[in-house]
From TrEMBL:
This is Diguanylate cyclase. Pfam families: EAL (PF00563), GAF_2 (PF13185), GGDEF (PF00990). Residues 198-330 form the GGDEF domain. NCBIfam families: GGDEF. Gene3D superfamilies: 3.30.450.40, 3.30.70.270, EAL domain. It comes from Novosphingobium barchaimii LL02. Residues 339-593 form the EAL domain.
Amino acid sequence: MIDLQNTILEMIAKGESLADTINRLCLEVERIVPDAICSVLRVDSHGCLRSLAAPSLPAEYSAMIDGMVIGPNAGSCGTAAWLGGEVAVQDVATDPRWHDFKNLVLPLGLKACWSSPVFGAHDRPIATFAFYYREKRGPLPIEREMVDRCVHLCAIALDRHRRVLEHERRAYTDALTGLANRAAFNIALPDLDCTSPGAWALCLVDLDNLKVVNDTFGHQAGDILLKEVGDRLAAAAVPDKVFRIGGDEFAVVVRSSSALRDIDRTVEAYLEALVPTADCDGKIVGPRATIGLAVLSDGDRTAERVRQNADFALYHAKETRRGGYVRYWPGIGTRMTRRLTAIREVDAALREGRIEPFYQPIILFETGEIVGLEALCRMRIGDRVVPASSFHDATTDASVAAALTGQIVAQVARDVRMWLDMGIPFQHVGINVSSVDFHNGSIYSVLAENFERERVPLKHVILEVTESVYMDDDAGVVRQSMAALREKGLKIALDDFGTGYASLTHLMSVPVDIIKIDKSFVDSIVDNGPSAAIIEGIVGIARRLGIRVVAEGIEERSQVRQLLGLGCVLGQGYLYSQAVGASEAGEMMLKFAQGLDVVKARSKG
């Protein structure tokens, strides 16, 4: 008995599995007591018996009693667990406690069964330890002594197993949402089968407005929002598993055939589940999320590759379909690589002072005078100067976009100061700003700080905003910021007008001071009737609203004549000048700036 006890305790101490430990216990006991057949059943939280170890009983028998509900007439083991005391049945064939189960055991040649409960915390039965006999008899004194020790060993093994499970539950469960956490996700992912394309899919769900909720209503409201989103995703994804893998990021491993059958509809259902508003600590919040989807395909040899694909899809969705989802396609990886490369290059250029504004003049058609400039971002790479279009992908990074605006604004302020000191009757310069500049709430302070330092009034600044900035403004942040800026006296120009959707709606929601007609209309104005009609309509509407119109991308004299005939009097394009550096822009204005004659006359007087 001492050897048996030491063997089992050593297995427990080494962390052997519960099943292996109890199975070894049964075999050692049967070696010592060859007339007995040993069985250990666990009692689950629902009061059902679960087979744990019975090495000498047929697997079919263990399977048949697995899940049996404990009760006053549930055989020896079920009754022992029910009563919390031993049950010794010397004749299975006649004992009423075996009436419903004797046909399972009698064909095996077993005629008697003695079972003892194993107690856990709070003195509740958590298992049973039983001897089956091939003859009608009860337990012998030596067997009682052995079972007493075995019951104690079972209790120790089960308690250690419970502690291990609790530790794993805490280690692999997110405390806030109750979902499996990143550690659990990292373990589950490599176990997925990657040999059958389409067998599973991965959705990465990014909560878009958690930071706004935390900053506006406090972290308690944000925690409630996370819990609500986790609950909704878990309910929508049943039976598939949901993980919380980051502060505001969740993952769904989709394996059920019904969900995979129409995976796009499945993802849409996840988004729909998040639509209703939630009460977050007394604040009504509409959860908003963006999803990246990747389905296991022929080229995916590992689950990690699928995860990377889902990451690419999520990043792309956040750039192009925020609040929606994007399914991975091979080109996304190339696009993301290009984006990351652009970010690194622009970041280096910012640190090294290789980002600077170039200026394209805005011309009054009838006189050829320069009435203003547009500042266009350029990056120097060795002897080359590259336009913003070549590194546009970098501006999708919020920190890079903000740094670009800051550096351009600072340089424009210095350049305007230089032109004013040259005696140029400078009117205004257009500075392009992005949605990031509005969302971080710093655009006015950046302008005011830099222009005040150079002693340049903000009346010389026009902020140019594309329609895409409006279209990514569900919360109305951009509209509110623009209205506040106009109240401070700044002018707003709507750039690339006509290329987006609902342009006229934009004019109603937030008035602007200038409309810049996109180059695509100007390109076809001479030969294309619809383009001319559209421009004529825009000019007419703008005149009634008191808005100035500037045509972009002018390259031919015939375009100027057509625009003048339609009522448009201002424009810019290569016909007059490409974008040039600050010194060259100053030289042009010394020759062609509107009002220069007045300045010269005053200087002579």
